[in-house]
Amino acid sequence: MNNGRFQIAVHIMTLLHLGENEQLSSEYMAGSINANPALIRKELSNLRKHNLVNSKEGKTGGYQLGKPAHLITMADIYVAVKQDSVLGEARNQPNPNCTVGKSINKNVASINTDLDKLIYDKLGKQTLAEFSKQFH
Question: Fewer C-beta neighbours within 10 Å, C or N terminus of the chain?
């Protein structure tokens, strides 16, 4: 997941928490993140699918958190944006007749599973509200 999605999502969620009494536009968030508003809307759509963000249409519309920040963990955000294994995956299929090749994928997958659990456990200990305190 080296594509920056977690950092962008955390940035979005932090902005929404700090501006929780307002509807924030994707353009406003794009300005803070210094990214294309279309990219931000795509990430907002994904966060909405995971019930982390709500949106309101119209002139007074925008985005807000889908639930209170103290009920959202950093792990919730991680799960919403995670696509690939932490260590990546080989595109080729190793030779099944090779001593290493026949079980390398299974053994590396086990490491990935362990790393994912460590990351999830670490991120699960901090809420968005706690993380956001750094920006007051």
Answer: C
